[in-house]
Amino acid sequence: MRGTSSTEMGPQGEDAAALTPRALAKARRRDEILVAAARLMARRGFHAVRLDDIGAEVGISGPGMYRYFSSKEDVLAEMLLDISRRLRDGGRAAVWRGGAPAEVVDALLAVHMDFVATEPDLISVQFRDLGSLPAAPRHEVRTLQREYAELWVDALVRLRPELSTIDARAHVHAVFGLLNSSPRLPAMAEAELRRVLTGMASAALRALPTPPPPPPGRRAP
User: Fold this and answer.
1) pLDDT digits 0-9 by tens, 170-199
2) Alpha-carbon gap, residue 113 to 193, rounded angstroms
3) Model pTM?
4) Which of 46, 179, 207 shows the shortest CA–CA distance to 118?
5) Which end of the chain is more exposed for a tag (fewer CB within 10 A), N or C?
């Protein structure tokens, strides 16, 4: 899902064609660093990874890393802000394309499934290490995540108008929990992972509520 990463977009939203070769090479190098950092942090945890460790993964000496990032907190912030923006923007695009309510919900599910199937390291880092971010980027990540989730909530209410906003929000966050559990599932091929999780998530979003139990002393009809 890295198709909208910094290798295609410059710091002010410019596309790669507008960057100088040197700036483009630096942007690509930053992406390599972020991928390596996600891999290491997913395996060891944020606090057990040093900036030097990340540099060693991509063949950059410790001092050389400071040309790209000022600290490992800076790496973590860019990593989690990047994926949060990409999910939010992908969700917006799915909604703006329009279609029947069911098509919009399925398009949102496809956006998240692409993330789940292709970037499991980021899922692990986001789940475990978001709290390690400094306050300002952590707040920004949370804001982006809420904006993304509300796209789902609005789409689900259009599909299922019998749901209250609160109930729809509960459905959405439960489905996020299901999808984001992928790094902890038994190993399976990507196509099988997509099939299994898409089917489960789609069924959960469309599930009818369980009727309340009958009052004591009365039999269910």
Assistant:
1) 999 999 999 999 988 888 899 999 999 999
2) 9
3) 0.83
4) 179
5) C
